[in-house]
Amino acid sequence: MEPFALYFATILTLAGIYAALTLGLNLQWGLTGLMNFGPLAFVAVGAYTSAILTVGGSAQHLGGFGWPWWLAWPLAALAGALLALPIGAISLRLRADYLAIATIGIAEILRLIVRNEDWLTGGPLGIPGIPRPFEGLGLPWGQFAYLALVAAVVAGLYAMAQATARSPFGRTLRAIRDDEEAAKAAGKNPAAFRLQAFVLGAACMGLAGAMLAHFFKFMGPDALDPVTATFLVWVMLIAGGSGNNLGAILGAVAVWALWAATDWLAGQLPGELATRAAYVRLFLIGLALQLILLYRPQGLIGERPPRPA
Amino acid sequence: MIHSTIGRRAALALGAATLILPRPGRAQGEAVRIGAILSASGGLAAFVPPIRAGIALALEEINAAGGVLNGRRLQLVEADDQTNPQVGVTVATRLVQADNVAAIIGPMASGITIAVANAVTIPAGVPIISPSATAPAISALQDNDTVFRTAVPDGLQGQVLGRVTRERGIERVAVMAINNDYGRGLSAAFAEAFRGHGGTVTATQNFEENRPSYRAELQTLAGRGSPQALMLVGYPASGGNTILRNSIENGFFNRFVLTDGMRDQSVVEAVGARALQGSFGTAPGTAAAPEQRRKYEEAFRRANPNLDPGAAFVAQAYDAAYVIALAIQRAGAPDRAAIRGALREVANAPGEVVGPGEFARARDLLAQGQAVNYEGASGPIEFNQQGDAQGRIEVWEVQDGRITVVANLAE
Hints:
The complex is a heterodimer.
Chain A lengths: L1 H30 L7 H16 L14 H23 L4 H21 L1 H4 L5 E2 L12 H26 L1 H11 L1 H6 L4 H27 L1 E2 L6 H15 L4 H24 L2 H25 L14
Antiparallel strand pairs in A: 1-2
Chain B lengths: L1 H5 L1 H13 L11 E7 L9 H17 L9 E7 L4 H14 L4 E3 L4 H15 L3 E3 L16 E3 L4 H14 L4 E7 L2 H16 L3 E8 L7 H8 L6 E5 L2 H15 L5 E3 L6 H7 L8 E6 L4 H14 L10 H18 L4 H12 L4 E3 L4 H9 L4 E3 L17 E8 L2 E8 L2
Parallel strand pairs in B: 1-2, 1-3, 3-4, 4-5, 6-7, 6-8, 8-9, 9-10, 11-12
Antiparallel strand pairs in B: 10-13, 13-14
Helix pairs in contact in B: 3-12, 4-5, 6-7, 9-10, 12-13, 12-14
C-alpha cells in the first residue's frame, strides 16, 4: 500500500506544480489574452534562482548561500517577475503573435545562457543536490509534507488569482482582451494593464520553477525541455478551460494524470512496442489537444465571468 | 492516515489502482521485477534498440536456466526517460514506488543518472547500474553505495588519451568539445592529464551541436598559440564531421586527437582516409577475456541477427542485468539493501569465475556456499569503492581506410 500512496503523492505533487504554472499562464492568456510561448524562460529563472540560493558551496557553479527554501521561493517568484518586466515593456506593444515569437526567443536565449555560463549555473552539468523541504522527515512523511506544501502554495495562488479575476483590475484585463478600443475609450491604459498581468503571471511561473527544482533536487539545461515546460502547460490550460482558474488547476491535474497513466501503460508493453509508445504518447497529447479545440474549445470548465451584482 | 492526507478522490483512485496493479509479492514463484530506464525517445534513442536486446538476452538466459531464488522469473519493467532528467525522475519514481522493482538498469545519460540518483534512488536505497553513464562526476556522488556502473568513466579515457598524445610527440593542442556533460567532462580529464605530462592546451572551445559551419571557432583556435593538433570530443553526425571537414578544407588543422564519440566508420567516409593520416583516438576497449566475449556475441547474434553485439554499451547493459541477477541470488531475496551488499561479492574477485550464459552454474555454486566472480562480456566487472567498473581503453587509428585498434591499455 505504502509504495502506491507514495507514487500518487509524487503524481499529485507534480500536478500541483503544473497547476501553479497553469494558473500563471491563465492570468496571462486566459484573462488578458497574452500569448506567452516561453513559460520555460520564467520556470528556468525561478528554478535556478532558488537552486543557487539554497545549495551548498561548489566549485562547479555559484552557490553556498545556504538559504532556507521559504526565503528563496519568494525571490524565485521575484526573479520571474523581474525577467518579465523588460520583456513585457518592450514586446507588449507588439500584436499578440509577435509577443509569442518574442517569448519563444527569450526562452531559447535563456536555455543557451544556462548551458554556457558555467560559473553561474554549472553549465551542462547543472546544479545537483538542491535540498527538498521536509526531506529530513524521511519516507513517506517527507514526501507527503512536500505535497502538502505544494498544495498550500497552489491554494494560495488560486485564492489570489480568484481575487484578481473578480476585482476591477481583472474586469479591466478581460475588457482589454475582448475589446481593446472599448477599454481605451473607457479611459484605461491597455499597455500598463497588460504589463502588470504579464509580470504577475511570470511570478507564478518563477515560483513553480522553484518548486520543480526542489522536487527534482536537480536543475540542468537538459531538464528545461519545451515539450514539458511550455507545450504541456498550454495543453493543460486549454483542456481545463482558459479564463477559469479552477479549470486551469483541473486541466493540470487531469493532463498530468493522463501523462503518468500513459507512461505506466507504455511500460507494460513489450520491448519494441515500448519504444514506439514513447512517441505515440506525444502524438496522443497533440491529438487530444486537437479534439478539445474542435469539439470543446472552452475546455472542461469554460470561462464564467462573474455577474455584476 | 494516508487517505486523510491526500484526499478522498485520490484515495478512490488509489483503491482502484491497487485492484489493477499487480501487487509486490513475497510469495514463491512470483516474478522478480527489474527496472530499466532507457532513453527510448529523444537524443539518445538511436543507442537503445541493441541495448534493450542485450538486457532482454541476459534475462532470457537467466529465466531459461530456471530463474532466481527457487524458480522465480526475472521480469523487466521498462521506462523511457525521453533523454530528459525530469522525465527520468518521474519514471524512476514510478519504477521504485509503483512497480516496486528490486534494482534498476540505467539511466543511460550521465546527467539523468545524477538527477535520478539524487531525487529517487538514493533516498529509496534502490541499487542502480548504468551501462553507459561515463561522466566523472558520478564517482563523486554521495550515494550510500547505491550507484554503480558497468561503463568505464571518462576520467580514465581522458587520462590515457592525454598520455598517448604526449607520447606521440604532440606538445601543443587546441581542444574543441561538444557542449554537454560528456564533452566537458572528457575534455577536462584530457587537459589535466596532458598538462601533467608536460603538454600545453593552447585554447579550449565548447561547441553547440548541428551548426552549419564551425569556421569561426576553428579559426580562433588555430590562430592562438600555434597548436600542432586539434583534440575533438563530439559525435560525427551532430557536428564532429563538419568540424573535421572545415579544419581540413581551410587548412586550420591536419592532425586530430579523437575520442570514442568519433570512433565511427562514417567519419572515415565523410572526410577520407588520407586526411586522417597521423590522427588517432581512444575509446573504452574490451577488457573481456576472449572466450567470455565470444559466448556473449554468439548468443546475441542467435537472438538478434540484425543487431550488433559490439554496438556502444550493449555488452555493459547485458553485464548489468547479469550481476543484478547474481546479486539477487546471493542475497537470497529481492531485497534492495541485500542486493546492494551482494553486488560486489558476485562481481569482484575472489571467487569461482563465471561468465555470460553460465547462470545455472553460478546459482549452483552459490547454493553450495561458494563465492562467484562474474567476468562479463564487457570486462571483468570489478566494482571499486565508488561503484565504478574497472576497464581498459583502446587506442585506434585509421589504417587503409578502416578503424584499427593499435593498443589496449589498462591505465
